[in-house]
Amino acid sequence: MKNVSKILRAATLGVSTLAATMYASQSMALPLSDILDGSDIELRFSGATAPDEFIFGFFTNPAAAGGPCVDGTLDVYEGDVAGTDNRAYFCTSNGSSIGTAGQEILVLKSSKGSGDGVLPVADPGTTTNFLNMPQLATDDAAG
What we know:
alpha+beta; 33% strand; six-stranded mixed beta sheet; 4 helices
């Protein structure tokens, strides 16, 4: 999964700004090995790209501005999986909107298009590709 980048973004007064782009092997707020142990809450959803920046903004908001993560624990990954843009959000819940305080949250978003949001519901045989976080954690541990 060398095509996956960890992106760091800073949230100031609820406005997300690009701070740096780093690769997954660099420092993380939460160790990727926690994913191998299983996140407390894992959400997967797919569909159009339209809500992607809203979702990003929600997760990167500081806790005081309504963000769901304990400040300083959020890692965001983005990459291409089979021609589809994907993001993963991994953090510790502050208990304000997702789960209870202290639970680890992993949210995976696949952005292939609108059809990718409804087809897996209408046809259970339809598959959606997401970032393979356990593989990313294994790659990170291997250096």
